[in-house]
From TrEMBL:
It comes from the Eukaryota. GO terms for biological process: axon development; central nervous system myelination. Belongs to the myelin proteolipid protein family. One of its GO terms (cellular component) is plasma membrane. This is Glycoprotein M6B. PANTHER family: MYELIN PROTEOLIPID, NEURONAL MEMBRANE GLYCOPROTEIN M6-B. It comes from Myripristis murdjan. The chain crosses the membrane at residues 19-47, 67-92, 113-146, 204-228. It holds the Pfam family Myelin_PLP. One of its GO terms (molecular function) is structural constituent of myelin sheath. Keywords: Membrane, Transmembrane, Transmembrane helix. It is found in: Membrane. The keyword Nucleotide-binding does not apply. It is a multi-pass membrane protein.
Length: 245
């Protein structure tokens, strides 16, 4: 066998679906965790400077955000390891399916491990659908504020008194109703939208939401690849049992 044929045979054992899913998963998780962490910090800064001047009013929210940031660290670490494991499992199952090694035999343990990854990937896929939906919430809130600011700046608005236009974050349940001032109106609202914290946090939330969506797509690809490989491995094990008799 020449070098070219050997390379073609090796390339045939590469799990391209798992490889694409791993790259997409790493990229999506990195965007979600990195951008989400910075955006949460910016959100706390905006609330403290403009919507809740008393620390005790948003103390619980600050604790929740800090907890979410620690969870982000855990998510990043877990998916880094899980992506590598799934990629290695993809190499294993692809080699089995394509029969690159003539002496290869599937075992019950190997099939159980593949089945476990199929089940776990399905669970993570459903969980990340929830994360994707949850990550869209701050995008919606910031978009409402941004669109309100643009409406005030629009020349077609014909507003006689811009101080009547307000954004009250208390209605979203972010801070309690007794928080002061709790809302921003008119020029104050326009100044908030012009700050770097607002601009950066808004766009980082959008990128984080896109990262969560990319992770969902990566897990869907993992689901299809692992399910197919598990089904073929199970079929091969039955075929091996039949040929023994």
């Amino acid at each position: 066998m020449g070098c070219f044929e050997c390379c073609i045979k090796c390339l045939g054992g590469v799990p391209y679906a798992s490889l694409v899913a791993t790259i997409l998963c790493f990229s999506g998780v990195a965007l979600f965790c990195g951008c989400g962490h910075v955006a949460l910090t910016g959100t706390v800064t905006i609330l403290e400077n403009h919507f809740s001047k008393v620390t005790s009013d948003h103390a619980m929210l600050t604790d929740v955000i800090q907890l979410m940031q620690y969870v982000i660290y855990g998510i990043a670490s877990f998916f880094f390891l899980y992506g590598i494991i799934l990629l290695a499992e993809g190499f294993y199952t692809t080699s089995a399916v394509k029969e690159l090694h003539s002496e290869f035999k599937t075992t019950i343990c190997g099939r159980c491990i593949s089945g476990m990854f199929v089940f776990l990937t399905y669970i993570l896929g459903v969980a990340w659908l929830g994360v994707f939906g949850f990550s869209a919430v701050p995008v919606f809130l910031f978009y409402n504020m941004w669109s309100t600011c643009n409406a005030m700046k629009s020349s077609m608005a014909n507003l006689t008194n811009i101080d009547t236009i307000c954004v009250d974050v208390r209605q979203y349940g972010i801070i309690p109703w007794n928080a002061t001032p709790g809302k921003a109106c008119g020029s104050t609202l326009g100044d908030i939208c012009s700050t770097s914290e607002f601009y950066l946090s808004y766009h980082l939330y959008i990128v984080a939401c896109a990262g969560a969506g990319a992770t969902v797509i990566a897990l869907l690809i993992y689901m299809m690849a692992t399910t197919y490989n598990f089904a073929v491995l199970k079929f091969k094990s039955r075929e091996d049992c039949c040929t023994k008799f």
